[in-house]
Design goal:
The chain has about 300 residues and is of the alpha/beta class. The chain is built from twelve helices and ten strands. The protein has helices at about 15-25, 40-55, 70-80, 95-105, 115-120, 140-145, 155-165, 185-190, 210-215, 245-250, 250-270, 285-300; strands at about 5, 15, 35, 55-60, 85, 130, 150, 170, 175-180, 195-200. It has an eight-stranded mixed β-sheet with strand order 5-4-3-6-10-7-9-8, with helices on one face. Helix 2 (about 40-55) crosses helix 9 (about 210-215), helix 7 runs antiparallel to helix 8 (about 185-190) and helix 11 packs across helix 12. The protein is globular, with a radius of gyration of 21 Å. The model is unreliable at about 185-190 and about 295-303 (pLDDT under 50).
Length: about 300
């Protein structure tokens, strides 16, 4: 576990695993945590850390309808206790990518990621949610996430943080990010979590090698897609994935489903009188446009 031991600036030795366990034990509410579980390596870490910490929790997998089948099989086999959550509209109907695209009347893009809102961000309401978010994943996460994030009423949460002298900052969305784990901070979270959406990110400061060391040293099996070269596992065709075109060739059934959804989207647009500025004559044409910019970016990165 050498990679998970670090020496602070003041010379003190810090165990990242123990620090994560301490965070989980510090902020656990009476009803237990809602653990956001995707089946990826980071969410595996927080799931097993919750077990090691002895905290009460229930883990939930949000069904996106576009996750790789290998990942779905892995979750079913290795984590049978994880609850599967199907997003539903106000009438109780299950929402999938295939009926969401026609409803939104546009493809999901880097700037219009409505799919994340439906499939990822709506879960865990009114619960203290544990995530596998890490600073090392992206600069945006480093800027907008800490060990504890509190969303909802920034004036109240900022005032509470100031009253207890907690180390915090405010992100671009006006939410409070706390970075110090102490008893005073815990009292603040207990005061606010019932009216806010609170995220606890116990491995926020872990590097990728820390994640793999934790899983491997504890004999925890991971999804086979990592062994096939995947660095991150996510939705097939994700607008944020520059290699989506190649990925869709690996999963032709998903590509066909996207094209069918685009065809239904165009039909809905025609019925609504919506005229596109794009040359979208068919679902195939939408697919070509949808992947075109990402393919160009990927080719440029590969040269």
């Amino acid at each position: 576990m050498l990679g998970q031991i670090e020496i602070n600036a003041d010379g003190r030795i810090r165990d990242k695993v123990q620090a994560a366990i301490d965070r989980l034990q510090m902020f656990c509410p009476e009803e237990g945590y809602y653990v956001a579980f995707s089946g990826g390596k980071d969410s595996q870490c927080v799931y097993h850390l919750c077990k090691m910490a002895g905290v009460k929790f229930d883990a939930h997998y949000n069904v996106t309808s576009v996750d790789p089948p290998e990942l779905i099989r892995f979750i079913r086999k290795n984590y049978p206790d994880v609850e599967w959550e199907f997003p539903r509209d106000k009438d109780g109907r299950v929402v999938t990518m295939w009926n969401l695209i026609p409803r939104k009347q546009m493809p999901p893009t880097r700037l219009a990621r409505y799919c994340c809102e439906w499939f990822k961000e709506s879960s865990g309401r009114h619960r203290v949610t544990v995530t596998g978010v890490r600073w090392a994943e992206s600069a945006r996460r480093a800027a907008n996430h800490g060990a504890v994030d509190i969303f909802g009423k920034p004036k109240k949460t900022k005032a509470a943080a100031e009253n207890i002298g907690a180390d915090y900052k405010v992100n671009q969305r006006g939410s409070v990010i706390m970075n110090v784990d102490n008893d005073e901070a815990r009292r603040m979270v207990e005061l606010c979590y019932r009216t806010q959406k609170t995220l606890v990110n116990p491995i926020i400061d872990w590097e990728e090698e820390d994640v793999w060391e934790f899983l491997n040293s504890n004999g925890i099996e991971h999804c086979c897609l990592y062994d096939q070269g995947k660095k991150r596992i996510g939705c097939i065709g994700c607008p944020m994935n520059p290699a989506a075109a190649a990925e869709l060739e690996m999963y032709p059934a998903y590509k066909r489903n996207y094209i069918r959804a685009f065809d239904r989207m165009l039909e809905n647009n025609r019925k609504s009188g919506i005229k596109s500025t794009k040359d979208w004559s068919s679902g195939e044409a939408v697919m070509e446009w949808w992947l075109g910019g990402r393919e160009a970016n990927q080719n440029a990165a590969d040269t």
